[in-house]
Specification:
By secondary structure, the chain is α/β, with parallel strands linked by helices. The protein has helices at residues 13-20, 24-32, 39-52, 58-65, 81-96, 110-122, 137-145, 169-182, 198-214, and strands spanning 70-75, 100-105, 127-131, 150-153, 164-165, 218-219, 227-228. Strand 1 (70-75), helix 5 and strand 2 (100-105) form a beta-alpha-beta unit. The protein is elongated.
Length: 229
């Protein structure tokens, strides 16, 4: 059978099947590695794929397997060193597992987060990593009405039935204050995160205050958070 095809169109799985002299389903088995194919047939299919420069349609394959092997990641911003390190680690792990990742930034704004939820779900991602700040009724309503496996990063949303990967922000702030106190500092200020943010705001602030209390250093409320002996 002729191997000639239009060069202005990408090769399809049907083109591969025609060139390799096999069925459409056999090519699918080789591409998806879903069922055993004898080595000679596999070699013919792989040769046809290389000859035609065929690139599998990930979305079409996802419709068949119900898996796109693509994860989404939402985080407030990527400009800080902490966010960059988090993104680097997540992307490395995702890549090693044979997945790809779609990244979206949210500015920690609820409306933008809900928009990102919808966009990523439309891309048929297999799951979401969400670097969250707060969890509102709007977040809960969306999650209840849409099936999108989600893991929350850096916040404890387990009470909302969302698995979470956490940093011990309380002890991190406690240890930082302890270090300053051990080096003779008694007048210490803290710039907190948003106190509506349990991890970056509340937990770190509690750790800071408890370290001061452990060394009998009183808070000076009139100074807006500065403390003195």
């Amino acid at each position: 059978m002729s191997r000639v095809r239009s060069q202005d169109k990408p090769a399809t799985i049907k083109d591969v099947a025609r060139v390799a002299g096999v069925s459409f389903s056999t090519v699918s088995r080789v591409v998806n590695n879903s069922k055993p194919v004898d080595e000679l047939t596999r070699a013919r299919v792989l040769q046809a794929i290389e000859e035609l420069r065929y690139v599998p349609n990930t979305l079409a394959r996802g419709l068949q397997t119900r898996q796109t092997r693509c994860l989404g990641m939402m985080l407030p911003e990527i400009g800080s060193s902490g966010a960059a390190k988090l993104l680097e680690g997540a992307e490395s792990c995702v890549r090693e597992a044979g997945y790809t990742m779609l990244l979206m930034t949210t500015d920690a704004a609820t409306a933008r987060e809900l928009e990102c939820f919808s966009i990523l779900r439309q891309q048929q991602i297999d799951g979401l990593l969400w670097v969250a700040a707060t969890y509102t009724d709007a977040h809960r309503d969306w999650q209840q009405h849409h099936a999108l496996p989600t893991v929350v990063v850096a916040q404890d949303f387990s009470s909302y039935s969302l698995p979470s990967v956490l940093v011990d922000n309380y002890h991190a702030a406690y240890d930082a204050a302890e270090y300053l106190i051990a080096n003779g500092h008694r007048r210490i200020a803290m710039i907190t995160g948003d106190l509506n943010d349990q991890a970056v705001g509340v937990d770190r602030y509690r750790g800071f205050l408890d370290a001061l209390a452990a060394h009998s250093i009183a808070l000076e409320p009139e100074s807006g958070g500065e403390v003195g002996a």
